[in-house]
Design brief:
Layout: H1 2-16, H2 22-26, E1 59-62, E2 70-72, E3 82-84, E4 87-89, E5 97-99, E6 106-113, E7 128-134, E8 141-146, E9 180-188, E10 191-192, E11 198-200, E12 203-208, E13 211-218, E14 240-241, E15 252-260
Antiparallel strand pairs: 1-15, 2-5, 3-4, 4-15, 5-14, 6-9, 6-15, 7-8, 7-14, 9-12, 10-11, 12-13
Length: 262
């Protein structure tokens, strides 16, 4: 209180003498240019026409027309899921698919849909997975779970938007079956020392339908169905989509794009 009275007194006396204003009295001494940074200048990225559309620097992984950017995880041959009406639907008989290219750190946009007539319960209801780094055949890697979690009870670290068997999502933001869901993911890959030990662990931030569900979560290793998570050294890795063997109708994906990050 004493400081405010003193400043006001200085302003009033200074105004009478034709000196400083109140704002000038509050301004710190020194040169503001000393803390201005002009370079490097950030690159210009033109955003998409909508938030879901790929920006100018994105790598489009699926635009609704073909699977040219994907291969079968099983044999590295052409991906054989079903493309129709701007979406790709899982063909469970042919197994998982993964990107031809490998990545380290990135921002990923992906949309997915549970069939309106979905059947089953618990983990046998629209089960799939987004593997943020595929480190081998089958389900090896780091999985962000895909599942129908709309009025479907299951274990919390296995529901939609969980880091499978590691991180419970901060919210259940699931839309009804038949409606499109959106994942926005920031993936920071693990870094390894020369001897294979972990120098810095993997982190993931994820939004489900615009709701924050994973907030810079630090992974304890790859996501395993049985047993504790462990790290396995890798450099770059494909992104994988899972053809889960549950008996419920197959789910679909659309509008998948990625921006590589430092």
């Amino acid at each position: 209180m004493k400081k405010v009275v003193l400043v006001l007194a200085l302003v009033l006396s200074s105004r009478a003498a034709g000196h400083v204003t109140f704002a000038q009295a509050q301004r710190p001494a020194g040169d503001p240019k000393l803390t201005e940074v002009w370079e490097p200048v950030p690159p210009v990225v033109t955003p998409g026409a909508t938030d879901a559309a790929p920006p100018s620097d994105a790598i489009v992984l699926f635009d609704g027309t073909n699977l040219d950017q994907w291969v079968s995880t099983r044999d590295k041959g052409p991906a054989r899921w079903i493309v129709a009406d701007g979406a790709v639907t899982v063909d469970k008989k042919t197994g998982n698919i993964e990107t031809k290219r490998s990545f380290r750190n990135y921002q990923l946009h992906l949309e997915w849909r549970i069939p309106a007539g979905i059947t089953g319960q618990d983990q046998a209801r629209g089960n799939s997975g987004l593997f943020l780094a595929s480190t081998g055949t089958g389900d090896a890697g780091y999985e962000l779970q895909i599942l129908d979690s709309y009025n479907n009870k299951t274990y919390a670290n296995g529901q939609a938007a969980s880091i499978y068997k590691q991180a419970i999502p901060l919210a259940n933001a699931m839309r009804k079956p038949g409606e499109w869901q959106t994942y926005e993911v920031i993936w920071t890959a693990p870094v390894f020392n020369g001897d294979g030990s972990v120098k810095s662990p993997a982190h993931v931030t994820a939004f489900h339908n615009g709701v924050l569900v994973q907030n810079n979560f630090e992974l304890r290793g790859e996501t395993l169905y049985i047993g504790p998570p462990v790290y396995k050294q890798y450099d770059t890795a494909p992104i994988k989509l899972q053809a889960h063997g549950d008996p419920s109708p197959a789910i679909s994906f659309r509008n998948i794009w990625l921006r590589e990050l430092p």
